[in-house]
């Protein structure tokens, strides 16, 4: 086998790179060859070494360079000056990080990628969270699915958010946790409803009352509709004539379809009554009462 003899062509790319002049705004990557209290020196495999002063290394005023970086580490930084006056290339790690962070935010916005953040501050109208050093604003209306009454309660919370506005030129980043929170809530509801069995009898609490029926939250967390026609075998004008919000009742699950739960009190009349019918309420050992249909209808004028 013929021995290869190295020539200048073997190092053409490296040589070309070494003589290429750096321009302001270029992003370069180099290896750390020196660290002191005030600056980091990089080998850029170029015509000159790179220098990053402490003020251009990190946004953290408490940063200690000798603890943050070690010789041999690779750092990507933006060229501030092609010559700092001492023949070195002046670089900024902060500027490069900002540029890459905005690139990432634009990509997250385009791809609807979720981001994990921590609420670092509360301001008028919302909260502040930093993403890779970029200040993001979360409007109060975008913190949760429901209305947020006290913003201070959210300080320090970890959230999963989406980017809804990104403007690099204006340095404007707006985040929202609402859509992801709603999706999680819907998924949890589906799981709870899917776990319900048709024919099962359960207790629950009346959450809201409409003209057409009442929504009841069962003990397993699932919410179903108790239609007005399923409250009694006798006709009633409105569910509010029999039920009140917060009232605890017993219902039978009559249907589970398309992620919806149908409930009935009327169907319970088909279940054999216990021998002791002197009381209108069945009491648990803890002392809580579960209201029976008879108690609900007692004293109510029916048509």
Walk me through this protein's architecture:
17% of the residues lie in helices and 36% in strands. It is an alpha+beta fold and 303 residues long. It has 3 domains: 12-93, OB fold (Dihydrolipoamide Acetyltransferase, E2P) (Beta Barrel), CATH 2.40.50; 112-181, Beta Barrel (OB fold (Dihydrolipoamide Acetyltransferase, E2P)), CATH 2.40.50.140; 195-268, Beta Barrel (OB fold (Dihydrolipoamide Acetyltransferase, E2P)), CATH 2.40.50. The strands form 4 sheets. A 5-stranded mixed β-barrel has the order 1-2-3-5-4. A 5-stranded antiparallel β-sheet has the order 8-7-6-9-10. A hairpin with a 3-residue loop joins strand 1 and strand 2 (39-43). The chain is elongated, with a radius of gyration of 33 Å. The model is unreliable at 272-297 and 299-303 (pLDDT under 50).
Mean pLDDT: 84
Separation of termini? 107 Å
Instruction: Count up the helices.
Output: 5
Strand order of the largest sheet: 1-2-3-5-4
User: Which topology of the largest domain does CATH recognise?
Assistant: OB fold (Dihydrolipoamide Acetyltransferase, E2P)
The second-level CATH architecture of the largest domain is Beta Barrel
Tally of individual domains: 3
Percent of sequence in beta strands: 35-45%
What is the CA-atom radius of gyration, in angstroms?
A: 33 Å
> Based on DSSP secondary structure assignment, what is the total number of beta strands?
17
Biggest sheet architecture: 5 strands, mixed, barrel
Helix content: 10-25%
Structural class estimated from helices and strands = alpha+beta
| Name of the CATH superfamily of the largest domain | Nucleic acid-binding proteins
Sum up the overall morphology in one term.
elongated
Q: Spell the H/E element sequence.
A: HEEEHEEHEEEEEHEEEEEEEH
Q: Report the uncertain regions.
A: 272-297, 299-303
The CATH top-level class label of the largest domain? Mainly Beta
């Amino acid at each position: 086998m013929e021995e290869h003899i190295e020539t200048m062509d073997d190092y053409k790319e490296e040589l070309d790179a070494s003589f290429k002049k750096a321009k302001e705004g270029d992003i370069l990557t180099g290896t750390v060859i020196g660290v002191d209290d005030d600056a980091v020196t990089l080998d850029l495999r170029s015509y000159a070494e790179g220098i990053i002063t402490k003020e251009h290394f990190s946004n953290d005023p408490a940063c200690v360079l000798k603890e943050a970086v070690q010789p041999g580490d690779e750092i990507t930084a933006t060229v501030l000056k092609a010559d700092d006056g001492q023949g070195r290339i002046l670089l900024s790690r902060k500027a490069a990080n900002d540029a890459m962070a905005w690139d990432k935010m634009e990509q997250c916005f385009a791809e609807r990628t979720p981001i994990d953040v921590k609420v670092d501050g509360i301001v008028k109208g919302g909260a502040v969270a930093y993403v890779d050093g970029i200040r993001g604003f979360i409007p109060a209306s975008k913190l949760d699915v429901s209305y947020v009454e006290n913003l201070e309660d959210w300080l320090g919370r970890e959230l999963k958010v989406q980017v809804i506005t990104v403007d690099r030129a204006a340095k404007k980043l707006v985040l929202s946790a609402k859509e992801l929170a709603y999706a999680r809530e819907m998924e949890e509801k589906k799981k709870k409803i899917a776990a319900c069995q048709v024919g099962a009898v359960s207790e629950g609490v009346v959450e809201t009352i409409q003209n057409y029926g009442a929504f009841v939250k069962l003990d397993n967390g699932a919410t179903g509709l108790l239609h007005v026609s399923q409250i009694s075998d006798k006709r009633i004008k409105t569910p509010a004539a029999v039920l009140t919000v917060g009232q605890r009742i017993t219902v039978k699950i009559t249907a589970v379809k398309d992620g919806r739960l149908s409930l009935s009190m009327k169907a319970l009349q088909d279940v054999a009554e216990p021998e002791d019918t002197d009381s209108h309420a069945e009491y648990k050992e803890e002392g809580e009462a579960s209201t029976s249909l008879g108690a609900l209808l007692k004293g109510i004028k029916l048509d």
